[in-house]
Amino acid sequence: MPRKLFCEISPLTYQISRRKSILTRQIKDRLSKEHFATAKSNEKLSVVIYKHNSLIRRQLGNTRMDLQENKAQNLKICTPLVNGVLIKPGEVSSLWKLVGECTPKKGYKEGLMVGREEDAQSGIGGGMCQFSNLIHWMVLHTPFGIVEHHHHDGVDMFPDFGRKVSFGTDTSIVYNYLDYRFRNTTDKTYQLITYTDDEYLYGELRSTEHQDFKYRIKVEDEFFSKENGTVYRNSKIYKRTIDRASGNDVEKQLIKTNHAKVLYDTSNLEIIEM
After folding, report:
1. Whole-model pTM above 0.90?
2. Which tops the pLDDT comparison, 1 or 169?
3. Is residue 24 part of a domain?
4. In a domain, 28, yes or no
5. Side by side, which strands form the sheet with 181-183?
6. Which of these, 45, 83, 124, 143, could form a disulfide with 191 (CB 3.0-4.6 Å)?
7. How confident is the model at residue 236 (pLDDT cuts 50, 70, 90)?
């Protein structure tokens, strides 16, 4: 049997390891020369670069729907903390620096999250990954550089239910040592607009002027395979860069290759034996 890590010995050692990781990130950020985006504006920048919305309450396998209700509350709390933030040229946007730690004292409730063993669990602030997924999907439609991005890429936990974004473009975040960060690599100022209503989480990425290029995310070579009795979801995700003036493709970049273990019932899937 493999030797357990210190954080795996008990709940206490996990909390000790967690607080150590949080403190280490805080120290690194204080010593860093990065300029983080914090300024906000109540006035929306004039040009909509990209916008997206996602359904808040989704039936994911056999998960409890009360966790979905709690997620709606969590998103209602965190979206105003990001709404209106300006990302100026050269600045880095950090989700956790804008939102802070999700605690019961701030009103956050227990929601669905992915555990350390990449399984469905519940915890305070569950649902924040949906928020970071939204931001990441919008960032993929810009020339920004992604500074920090963690995936749930080892598993396919739930069957598709009204999926609007490509499988494998999700994010994994844990305060504050697993963050989602991106850098504005352009000479233009951008702005994030985020909010919720009773049904949806909304996001807009705005700027002072149009981008020279458009971006499209495309999935290719998607299939399910069975390997040594285990079913996997496979695909390749490409980012196409398109010249706005001519409509011609400028670049096609492979940004992700998926090979994820499927954790739900696969009896109705078309599966290739490998």
Report:
1. yes
2. 169
3. no
4. no
5. 92-94, 181-183, 145-148
6. 45
7. very high
Q: How many domains does the chain have?
A: 1
pLDDT at 40 over 70: yes
Domain assignment of residue 50, yes or no: yes
Distances (CA, A) of 99 to 26, 81, 126, 157: 14, 6, 14, 26
Distance CA 162, CA 58 (A): 9
Radius of gyration of the chain measured on its C-alpha atoms: 20
Whether 221 is covered by a domain: the verdict is no
- Written in H, E and C, the secondary structure of the chain is CCCCCHHHCCHHHHHHHHHHHHHHHHHHHHHCCCCECCCECCCCCCEEEEEEEEECCCCCCCCCHHHHHHHHHHHHHHHHHHCCEEECCCCEEEHHHHHCCCCHHHCCCEEEEECCCCCEEEEECCCHHHHHHHHHHHHCCCCCEEEECCCCCCEECCCCCCCCCCCCCCCCCECCCECCEEECCCCCCEEEEEEECCCEEEEEEEECCCCCEEEEEEEEEEEEEEECCEEEEEEEEEEEEEECCCCCEEEEEEEEEEEEEECCCCCCCCEEEC
Check the CA dihedral 202-203-206-210 and report its sign.
negative
Instruction: Determine the length of the chain.
Output: 274
Which residue segment(s) compose the domain that 143 sits in? Answer: 35-210
Adjacent-strand bridge partners of 94: 181
